[in-house]
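#lab-general

N.A. 3:47 PM
ok so I finally got the sequence cleaned up, no stray characters, all 288 residues accounted for. can someone with queue access submit it? mine expired

B.Y. 3:52 PM
send it over

N.A. 3:53 PM
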Amino acid sequence: MSNELPKRKPPWLRVTGFSGRQFEQVSHLLRAHGLNTVCQAANCPNRGECFNRGTATFLIMGPLCTRNCRFCDVHPGAPDGLDAEEPTRVAEAAAELKLKHVVITSVTRDDLPDGGAGQFVKVVAEIRRFLPEAAVEILTPDFKGVDNAAELMIGAHPDVFNHNLETVPRLYPEVRPGADYERSLTLLRQVGEGSDIATKSGLMLGLGERTEELKGVFVDLARVGVSILTLGQYLAPSKEHYQVQRYVPPEEFEQIGQLARRAGLSKVFSAPLVRSSYRADEAMGESH
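B.Y. 4:20 PM
back already:
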């Protein structure tokens, strides 16, 4: 393999521009409620398609993250205190959008004693109140490994609990400083073993991982009971972020997805533009 970093995105990673009536309506609604989305904060390449489908992944607990992962476009900084009205505003927006599958994620809040777990509980409760028929998926940080985080998530009882491993253990110090591979696996295992909640995780490819390392991660995820896995191409947000080491072609994504299925993961979504929350409603439908 060449030591030179790839210079241009290949054709399969090109996406259309962000426009359309539904796109504008969703954007306006989010601004009106003073809400953030990971679609915007993380500069997701699918946000045009998702907004035009009337969907969005709500980003709670503010736009600033207490960690500075080198792959992420969410801004690091010192966040403000929690907004007590945020859970209701999220639920109201989800109701106005008439969502059937609501996805909630957050920045990492290491400044909070519970890592923000309590705010997830409140948001899920409000969504259940405003949209009792909707499925709820939460994509959480690791909550610093606080003892009762899994218990709180089980008590909130989302339909899907998602926590991303992001990459292979070897790359954590460089790509995910502040995170811990075993801590993340433990959280997934505790939620899965303690409930009937479907557990889910995701990895980015193109960071310099090796096939054998991916196989090991797949085995670990299956061992802790994860049933849904997303695999997508990493795209560097800027030259200051961790750089793409390789653009993985679509046919290789399919092959890697097959490796995950053979390891015991029942539902695997593997393609260059797949993201954790991309068409999450469809992923959940196929998981049951």
